[in-house]
User: Fold this.
Amino acid sequence: MNTTDPQIVLGTMDFGTRVDPDRAFAVLDSFVAGGGVWLDTANCYSFWTDPSGVGGASERVIGAWLKARPGARDAVRIATKVRHNPLVPHSHPKSAEGLSAGAVHAGVKGSLERLGVDHIDMLWAHAEDRTVPLGETVGAFGELVAKGVALRVGAANHAAWRVERARSLAREQHVEPWTALQLRHSLVQPRPLTPVAETGHRMLTAEDLDLARSEGLAVWSYTSLMWGSYTRADKPLPHTYDHPGTAQVLAVLDDVAGELSTTRNQVVLAWLMRHGIDPIVGASRVEQIEQALAARHVRLSDEHMARFAEAR
Assistant:
């Protein structure tokens, strides 16, 4: 896997929709003040909430924040994604942009304009598009890297074999390969062989981690804190997590949090980082991101990790 130390990534999906710009600015300011670096967004965020029926709100808020904060662009790295933005309002997935070369280039052009930047630090393919030859998508991503428009490229919600096939095609085309994976992962796990309810979410598997460790790929996790379910009684875990393993894991989580005088969420984030994973944390309030960043100072021992492994 990636040799750099794992970091907390700020997830900005709700900026400009559920999180108004003033609150988003406060969260962004706090994140940077606390030493945070990576912002994760997508050109489709959040079309399902925005009255316009298309994405772009999150990127526009980040762009406005960058414009209002001279020097902020040098302090942060921006990751965005193409694939899902509806080309026709309120018409997803029917009109989703996809991953053709034309769609990738047009999507990135729109992102750059909304963000007000000349390059993206990490460009993700948000999900697979099997209607398009994989080599075409790989070539488009590689061309953007060659132009300096994207500094790195990665694959979100892709099967491991597709990622490795894409990396092979990149070598054949002599272009930059995908060097990062983004998948859903947290301490608790759904029942084996049970699909999660959220359309398009792909769970991190042992095969993904094997690929990442073998090839030196970065791994980012989303839904890292299960929408607040670790700490909020009003947000119970989805029914797919209702199995004996969850109860065992949560019991260990409570014990470890007590031993370390920290919170459940901070232990979960520390556990992910001990696995070399960069957890994405969505925040709508300053105190949430402050607490998340504090997880960097939580030290889980080998014995703690073994207890979690046994419970899972």
